[in-house]
Amino acid sequence: MRILAIESSCDETAAAVVEDGRCVLSNVIASQAEEHKQYGGVVPELASRRHCENILYVVEEALRQADMTLDEVDAIGVTFAPGLIGALLVGVSFAKGLALATGKPLIPVHHTEGHAAANYLLHPELKPPYLALIVSGGHTRIAAVTDYTVFETIGRTRDDAAGECFDKCARAMSFPYPGGLHVDRAAQQGNPCAYTLPRPKMEGSPYDFSFSGLKTAVINMLHHAEQVHEEIDRNDLAASLQENIASVLTEKAIAAAKEYGYKTIALSGGVSANSGVRQKLLQACEKEGITLYMPTIELCGDNAAMIASQAYYNYLAGITADESLNAMASKELHGESVAFVGKGSSD
After folding, report:
1. Among 123, 199, 259, 331, which residue has the least CB neighbours within 10 Å?
2. d(CA 180, CA 186)
3. Which among 166, 187, 167 has a CA at the least distance from the CA of 36?
4. What are phi and psi of 44, to 5 degrees?
């Protein structure tokens, strides 16, 4: 089964064709990073306008690279939640138009589920059940993936996600957008023990995450240093920040795997590209005898191939939608399928 999928939840306009949820036939991304760099972050209205301009091109290019016509596609997949509402609406509206015009099934995909599915594109042996550690700019989550469309949340972000913490600290440290990449590069030149930073614990929720305190501590440290004319070594601070976040993610994931009896962890999301996170988690998994799966750097960020992969499994589970499908800026994962079950029904 060949699925054409569209992803437009933030500032990448993407389209891809994937066969049977595992084989990537094309994966096209139109990035807006350079344009948003001058503002220090994503401007939602601007992102939506660029999606409108780019979406036809990326879909046509995805079909061209797959050497297919639209008639040869079996279904249309699309990210419907969560994300920037204006950006999502562009992708959802375009996908609904394609499905209506061609009579193809329309398959809605939760963006966070899509990130988890990125590993299916590289590791044919990976199958549920496993523990997913999904870490991005908007979400940090530990979930038990008991089936391809069943995600049971064990721990989640209470405030700032790890990626948001990286980006906001990077901005305070005067790194250009996207900040997480520059923090990673600087960290490789710094001392991770140079600065002592807080590591909050969630009382009664050992697997939940909170990075707002860490973000505030870094920003306050920089402001104080500026006021007293004290020099802060950006490389050392970047290394200390990265060590802190990587340690929190790793310790919670390993502890959850042990408590719930999982011997496989799959890391995904934009922050899964961070070298410190990848290295620390890999070392911990090797020590504990846990198998770790990670996507390539190219598949860590937002892309449509991961959406097409998850769409395939959603379709097999009977998850489709009709023209009433709407974009949603936020939507929680539940212990059952989080997308639209049956035509026109939600939850």
Report:
1. 259
2. 10
3. 167
4. -55, -45
